[in-house]
């Protein structure tokens, strides 16, 4: 294809993983990331980062969706031994009172090294929650507080550049330079940029607490999760579809605290570090597709909801493949 210049709009985990994949697959490519928020200012930084996609997560079709999850899992697996990157193996439970199927995960069962049913005796020993069903599995924790700086550093080592700025219309792209193609990884910003009404905020609220003794994760019904991290544990949560409220809600706080301490009573003594609210970019089907906008080649890559960490290394491969095909179709 020869030398080409690609602009990536968005510096969250989707944008960074896309930029790294472009550098990996396209020889002599120049990649510039343009964003108005970086690192701790991104939605990605607020993510707990446990590698377990929800059953409703969807790409273009079931086969591609599973490929994204598989590719992403193996991507992080290959990085797990690098120090300071924010990746580690983690094990824990999925718990339910409603049904056995609520503790299963079609994406994970054939992928992770351990995924088994929990018997009644083990359930009784977990907590006083009267859980009727449970599964135990091993997976990975990818904490963006460590991963995002590592990804930015690798991107720059590969010759990538960062520019601070934002676009409200694709007609403004030329303000940042001449690009052969644009990767649109703007997350929730794509709702206005693309007039995409299928993209909606999914509000999430969590506690960060100091609980270094916590060594397992717990996922339960009603969007309840307890996830040990590197420097703090995450207690959650909420899934408020269509809510743009970024303020901490005291009623959500009370509900989260009650649900999590019922599962692990010792958390009642864990010092609270802070409470956080983030707006996940939810779309019923993640958008990964090409478009020509006023002669500009664009690959849309957004709408991962709460699963950008879990799926973006895989979906970035699909997005990069589309970009390569678009570039081949030009004089390049």
UniProtKB/TrEMBL annotation:
InterPro entries according to UniProt: D-amino_acid_oxidase_CS, DAO, FAD-dep_OxRdtase
Cofactors: FAD
Keyword Lipoprotein: no
Top-level taxonomic group: Eukaryota
Residue ranges of domain FAD dependent oxidoreductase in the record: 8-320
Binding site for FAD: 43-44, 186, 305-310
The entry's keywords: FAD, Flavoprotein, Oxidoreductase
Stored SUPFAM superfamilies: FAD-linked reductases, C-terminal domain (SSF54373), Nucleotide-binding domain (SSF51971)
Alphabetical list of PANTHER family matching this protein: D-AMINO ACID OXIDASE, RE49860P
Record-given protein name: FAD dependent oxidoreductase domain-containing protein
Native source organism of the sequence: Nezara viridula (Southern green stink bug)
């Amino acid at each position: 294809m020869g030398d080409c210049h690609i602009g990536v709009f968005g510096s969250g985990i989707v944008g960074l993983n896309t930029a790294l994949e472009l550098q990996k697959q396209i020889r002599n490519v120049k990649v510039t990331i343009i964003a108005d928020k970086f690192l701790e200012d991104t939605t990605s930084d607020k993510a707990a980062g446990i590698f377990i996609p929800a059953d409703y997560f969807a790409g273009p079709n079931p086969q591609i969706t599973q490929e994204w999850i598989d590719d992403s899992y193996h991507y992080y697996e290959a990085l797990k031994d690098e120090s300071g990157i924010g990746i580690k193996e983690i094990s824990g439970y999925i718990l339910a009172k409603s049904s056995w199927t609520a503790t299963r995960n079609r994406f994970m069962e054939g992928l992770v090294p351990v995924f088994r049913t929990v018997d009644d005796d083990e359930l009784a020993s977990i907590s006083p929650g009267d859980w009727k069903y449970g599964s135990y599995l091993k997976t990975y924790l990818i904490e963006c507080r460590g991963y995002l700086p590592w990804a930015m550093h690798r991107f720059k080592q590969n010759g990538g550049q960062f520019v601070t700025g934002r676009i409200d219309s694709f007609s403004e792209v030329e303000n940042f330079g001449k690009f052969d193609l644009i990767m649109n990884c703007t997350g929730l910003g794509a709702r206005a940029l693309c007039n995409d009404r299928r993209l909606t905020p999914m509000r999430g609220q969590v506690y960060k607490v100091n609980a270094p003794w916590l060594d397992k994760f717990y996922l339960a019904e009603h969007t309840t999760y307890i996830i040990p991290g590197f420097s703090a544990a995450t207690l959650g949560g909420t899934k408020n579809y269509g809510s743009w409220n970024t303020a901490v809600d005291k009623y959500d706080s009370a509900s989260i605290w009650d649900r999590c301490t019922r599962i692990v009573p010792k958390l009642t003594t864990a010092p609270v570090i802070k409470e956080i609210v983030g707006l996940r970019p939810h779309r019923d089907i993640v958008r990964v597709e090409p478009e020509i906008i006023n002669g500009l080649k664009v690959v849309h890559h957004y709408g991962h909801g709460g699963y950008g960490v879990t799926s973006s290394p895989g979906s970035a491969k699909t997005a990069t493949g589309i970009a390569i095909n678009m570039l081949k179709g030009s004089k390049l």
